Amino acid sequence: MKIELEKQEAELKKLIRKSMLEDDFDKAIFKELKTEYEEKISNLKLRLNYGQTKISNLDIYINKSVDVAKNINKYWGSGDFETQKRIQELVFPDGILLDLLKRTYLTKKINSFFF
Q1: pLDDT tens digits, one per residue of 79-101
Q2: Mean per-residue pLDDT, 62-71
Q3: Is 28 in contact with 71 (CB distance < 8 Å)?
Q4: What range does the domain containing 46 cover?
Q5: Residue 112, H or E segment
Q6: Could you give the CA distance from residue 39 to residue 31 in angstroms, rounded to a whole number?
Q7: Judgement on whether residues 62 and 103 belong to the same structural domain of the protein
Q8: Does residue 113 form part of some domain?
Q9: Which of 14, 55, 56, 52 has its CA nearest to residue 34?
Q10: Does pLDDT of 56 surpass 90?
């Protein structure tokens, strides 16, 4: 969408330059094309801004997440069953399997952040 926005803005600039340089440029066509480009640009800007929601206190959430990741053992050891379950699902999104014969844990996937 950013590339399309830049393209539409460049086209609008070309149109404005052309209308200024050419004496016989039709004003009605210029107004129509200018309005069309401005609408496209406005719609693209709205679509781009729609996905960029602001999160209040983002620094606090990031710092807390880093703290949890750095001290995962502490949170696991001091957490209740629900906390341990959430940590396990976070670190091993596909779950953990137990090989009863070899008495080992098997994991299919590890969250890349913790890997």
Answers
A1: 899 989 988 888 888 888 888 89
A2: 88
A3: no
A4: 2-50
A5: none
A6: 12
A7: yes
A8: no
A9: 14
A10: no
